[in-house]
Amino acid sequence: MRIKIVVLLAFIIGSVHQAHAALSLSGTLSHGQKWTITDSASGLSTHPGLSGIQQIQSNIQAGTPGTDVSLPAGWTSTPDSGTQYTKPHYSDEYPRGASTQSIKAHAIVGYGVNSGFYYDMGVGGVYKLYASIWVYALPISASSSPSQWKFFIVSPEASADQKRNSFWGIHWMDGVLNMDPGSKNPYCMVYCCSATSTPSYTCQSDGTTSQPPWACFNNTTYLYNPASNLKGVGIGGYGVDKRGRWYFIQIFAKASEGGTANGQVIVTSQETGDSQRYFINLPATITRTTGEELWRYIYWLGYFGNGVTEMYVHYTDPYVQTGSYARVELADSDVYANITHREVQKPTLWQADKIEIEAFNRGSFAENAAGLTLWITLDDGTQYSIPNITLGSPPVSYEARLILGSKCDSDSVFKNITSGSTDTFDLTAESGRYIKISGTCGGSLSAAFATSATYATGTMSANCTETIECPIMPGIPFSK
Q1: What percent of the chain has pLDDT over 90?
Q2: Cα gap 421→44, rounded to integer Å
Q3: What are phi and psi of 50, to 5 degrees?
Q4: Is 337 helix (H, G, I), strand (E, B) or coil?
Q5: How far apart are CA 119 and CA 298, in angstroms?
């Protein structure tokens, strides 16, 4: 097993590897089964945002296709602008591996901003947010003129509109989902306004900037500029038709102190098989002025205009987490920067020595996919990895547990050991006593009738227990 420590600057720049044998994975490696990540060195820290995790795919999977969505508490579907449905509805039209259903929003130009769903992160808002979702867009009526698609908003206000301190993801397209061959490309639109001023945005499709009279999201060094070498980032690729494909969107957002450039907004998009692309890259910026609110709502929208007259947007595997960037991802590479496919997992327990995933989600990985890596990212950016995972296989590790008798001691009472491997325990007995073993773990002691010895397990193929007894050494008079 390995640890990977990542230095974060503009999200990811470099990494350093070192051995970390204390990390192990156990459980049945199939969709919906429980996985447990154990760290005997207790280096996993804690998850400050565990209680704020929301993943509603089970609700989406349980919905009846063609019916209006009925979402859990905190989630709200907004009215559909089309005539076929009154709200976004459950759909099984475009399955994505194990995620066989999605939320489908139907939008008509001029009204689509109200088509979708949103999550209320709580009264008072949040300082830190990680969110991800898979999006599939299908324009069904388009002209050749440039079009825009606003596919998410993060805002302090309960309105999908141009509100203060909000940021939007906007994609320009030439009637389909490839880059507009003219001047327009994907860009972010960040609104900054006081309660009485007119909204103003700081990054535009042509790469120019329009600054409000105060410093809000105005670190122009990091604003997206289509004229730079980032041309073609976002959903799609320049000159390539990207209709009808699933894209993975990630949002990393940290609120600044009022008027201080210590906030962060990073948004990435990725099609399976392609490298991750920055959509918004503001690693150190002002997100609000003094006294302004924190973000409270995250919207997933079907808004579009400027050429497209009708569009369907599908959403699946939405994940929202407040208070932390810590996360668990199953990925197709043991080098984080080289990942071209990832599936975010929902932890139900996160302690310094253990992480539990109650229901593993393989997403669109094949049922028997091999050569995968499980990535654990801590809130401070430290990353651990468990490589060489094959789905559908038996548990990758088993537990060997010792039952210690009176007068006996050990360096550990249990270890998670990789299937097909062995491990050792250092045992000691009180003076005048010797170590004796019996149980189901097999193996042997390094010395007979010894006060201290190393116990080596047999080759692991199942969970097992070994009883350690410490009787009086032969020939030594009995005494309490």
Answers
A1: 38
A2: 24
A3: -60, -40
A4: helix
A5: 5
Which amino acid belongs to residue 322?
T
- Tell me how long the chain is: 480
**Tens digits of residue pLDDT in 222-271:** 233 333 323 333 444 444 555 677 889 899 999 888 777 788 888 787 88
DSSP string, 208-272: -----SS-SS--GGGS--TTSTTTT-SSSBTTB--TT-EEEEEEEEEPPPTT-S-EEEEEEEEET
Residue 60 phi/psi, 5-degree rounding, is -65, -40
Considering only CA atoms, give the Rg of the chain. 27
> Measured at the alpha carbon of residue 97, what is the angle toward residues 92 and 98, in degrees to the nearest 5?
80
DSSP structure class, residue 58: H
What distance in Å separates the CA atoms of residue 340 and residue 347, rounded to the nearest whole number? Answer: 22
Candidate from 294-303, 355-364, 384-393 with smallest mean pLDDT: 294-303
User: How far apart, in whole angstroms, are the C-alpha atoms of residue 444 and residue 436?
Assistant: 10
Tokens read off for 215 = 């410093």
Phi, psi of 221 (to 5 degrees): -60, -30
Q: Which residues contact 76 (CB under 8 A, 6 or more apart)?
A: 117, 118, 119, 120
Which percentage of the chain shows pLDDT scores above 70? Answer: 68
Cα torsion 235, 273, 117, 244: sign: positive
Q: Count CA within 13 A, CB hemisphere, residue 271.
A: 17
How many CB atoms are closer than 10 A to CB 386? 22
Confidence of residue 214 (pLDDT cuts 50, 70, 90): very low
